[in-house]
Amino acid sequence: MEFVVIGAGAVGLLTASLLKEAGNKVQLVTRREVQARQITDHGVVKGANRYDIKATTSWKSIPPEAYILVAVKYEGLETVLPLFQEQAQTNPVIFLQNGMLHIEAIKKLPQKNIAAASVEHGVVKLSDHEIRHTGQGIYKVALLKGEERVFLPLVSLSGIHMEWHADADRLLFRKVLLNTLINPLTALMKLKNGELLTNPYAFELLERLYRELADAFPEMEELLPFNEVSALCTSTSSNTSSMLADKLAGRKMELDTILLYTLNRSQKDLPILRSLYQLLKSTEV
Ligand SMILES: NC(=O)C1=CN([C@@H]2O[C@H](COP(=O)(O)OP(=O)(O)OC[C@H]3O[C@@H](n4cnc5c(N)ncnc54)[C@H](OP(=O)(O)O)[C@@H]3O)[C@@H](O)[C@H]2O)C=CC1
Ligand SMILES: CC(C)(CO)C(=O)C(=O)O
C-alpha cells in the first residue's frame, strides 16, 4: 500500500518507519527543505535501524490514491488545513493529533474520506531524522466522515498495529481525558508519567482531578476507570509527557485542544482544571 505522512516530528517519523518496515511505499512531507534533504540523504533512523524514505516539502508529489497521515501538532494544522482545500482531493486522510478542538474543522474539508486516530505509542524526536521509540503501542482509528470500507484494509497491515473503533467521539474523548489528567500535572510539576503515582502530592492531585472530571462527565467512570489511568502512568512510567516535553523545549503546548476543550465541553465549572490551565497558559511562550 502507499502512504504519505505529513509532518516529520516524533509521531510522523515513527509512523513512516513502521509503515516502511511493514513493506509499504512511504513518503514524508516536511515543512522545511533542510529537513527533507536530511531525511532523503540519511534515512529515518530508529534505534539501530535505518529506513530509506523520500522526503519533500511539496504536496505535488502525493499520489492520488495514497493514504495520507497528518502528524503535525494542533498548531501546525493552521497551515496544513488550508492546503487540503486545493490539494490531495481524492486521498483518504487520517489525522493523528491529540486533542479535539480541530475535529469540526476537519469534518468540513472537501476530502470524502477522513478518519482520526489516537496514537498510543511513546516516541521522542532526537534530531530531524532520528527518533527513539520509548513505548510500544497501537493506532486506534475511527471514521470522521465518508466510508469505513476505505480504511478497513489498514487494520490488517502487518507491522503497524491499527485497531478500528466504531465511535470517533468516544475514542478521541477518552484520549483527551487521559491527556487532561496526565499532561498538565507532569508539565507543571516536571514529573515523568510514572511519578504521578509515586509522588504523594501529585497522586492526590491526580485523584482530585479525576473526581472533578468524573463528576462533570457521567460517562467517565465507564469510559476511563481510574485504574486505566494509573495503568497508563505505569506503562509509560519513564515517559516525559508531550506537554512537559514541549514546555522543557520552550515550544507551544497543546493546551487549548486538550485542556480548554475539556473545560468547554463540561456543563459544570472545573476549578482544579481551570487553575492548571491558567497556570500553564500564563507561562506559555
Ligand atoms: N510524541 C508522542 O509520543 C505522541 C504525540 N502525540 C500527538 O501527535 C501529534 C504530533 O506530535 P509530535 O510528533 O510529538 O510533534 P512534533 O513537534 O515532534 O512534530 C510536529 C511536526 O510537524 C511539522 N509541521 C508543522 N507544520 C507543518 C507543515 N505545514 N507541513 C509539514 N510539517 C509541518 C513540524 O515541522 P517543524 O519541525 O519544521 O516545525 C514537526 O516536525 C501531537 O498532536 C501530539 O500530541 C500522540 C501520542 C504520542
Ligand atoms: C498518553 C500520554 C500521556 C503518554 O505520555 C500522551 O499521550 C502524551 O504524552 O501526550
TrEMBL record:
Top EC class of this enzyme: oxidoreductase
Enzyme Commission number(s) of this protein: 1.1.1.169
SUPFAM superfamilies recorded: 6-phosphogluconate dehydrogenase C-terminal domain-like, NAD(P)-binding Rossmann-fold domains
Pathway given in the UniProt record: Cofactor biosynthesis; (R)-pantothenate biosynthesis; (R)-pantoate from 3-methyl-2-oxobutanoate: step 2/2
Record's catalysed reaction(s): (R)-pantoate + NADP(+) = 2-dehydropantoate + NADPH + H(+)
GO molecular function term, any single one: NADP binding
Record-annotated Ketopantoate reductase N-terminal domain positions: 4-143
Cellular compartments per GO CC: cytoplasm
Pfam families on file: ApbA, ApbA_C
Domain Ketopantoate reductase C-terminal: 170-282
Keyword NADP among record annotations: yes
GO biological process entries: pantothenate biosynthetic process
Keyword terms of this UniProt record: NADP, Oxidoreductase, Pantothenate biosynthesis
Family statement drawn from the similarity comment of this UniProt entry: Belongs to the ketopantoate reductase family.
Described purpose of this protein according to its UniProt entry: Catalyzes the NADPH-dependent reduction of ketopantoate into pantoic acid.
Designated name of the protein: 2-dehydropantoate 2-reductase
Organism: Planomicrobium soli
